[in-house]
Amino acid sequence: MNKLRIFLIGCGVIALLSSCRSTKKTISTTETIYVETVLKQLLKTQIKADWLDAQVKITYKDASMSQTANANVRMKKDSLVWISVKKLGFEVVRAQVTKDSVYFLDRFNQNYAVKDLNFLSEMYSLPASLETLQALLLGNPIFFLPVICNWKALP
């Protein structure tokens, strides 16, 4: 019994001595990062594609219905964006965005419309320039384009 008592007291003392110590003081030094450096790095890592050809699966969910469709997206840098949406193998909608116009062809309702590029901004809250729309499709940052905002970098 005495050996057990001595063993338990010894374990308790060791636990107290090993757990009760002052905290380590660490000095963290952070390197100053300037806005200009971050922006240059972002611009350097952008995707620069002359052509893009992609297939996209679109899912639309509403309170009353849910729809899925497939779309083909083709893009030529600084020239046009062409989107064709298909449902059950039939083309339903086609859209072509150029530098100044948007062309819609609704094969389901048999409608055709030509709109100004600002139409995308007003109706669908999409970027109102071809450059911004293409950057959005490529996954490039759009907030640093001169069309969106002016920024001033730190020296």
Structure notes:
- It is a single chain.
- With 155 residues, this protein is an alpha+beta fold.
- It has a domain at 49-138.
- It is built from four helices and six strands.
- It has helices at residues 2-19, 35-44, 118-124, 130-138; strands at 51-61, 66-76, 80-87, 90-97, 101-106, 111-116.
- The chain has a six-stranded antiparallel sheet with strand order 1-2-3-4-5-6.
- A hairpin with a 3-residue loop joins strand 2 and strand 3 (80-87).
- The protein is elongated, with a radius of gyration of 30 Å.
- The N and C termini lie far apart (75 Å).
- The model is unreliable at 147-151 (pLDDT under 50).
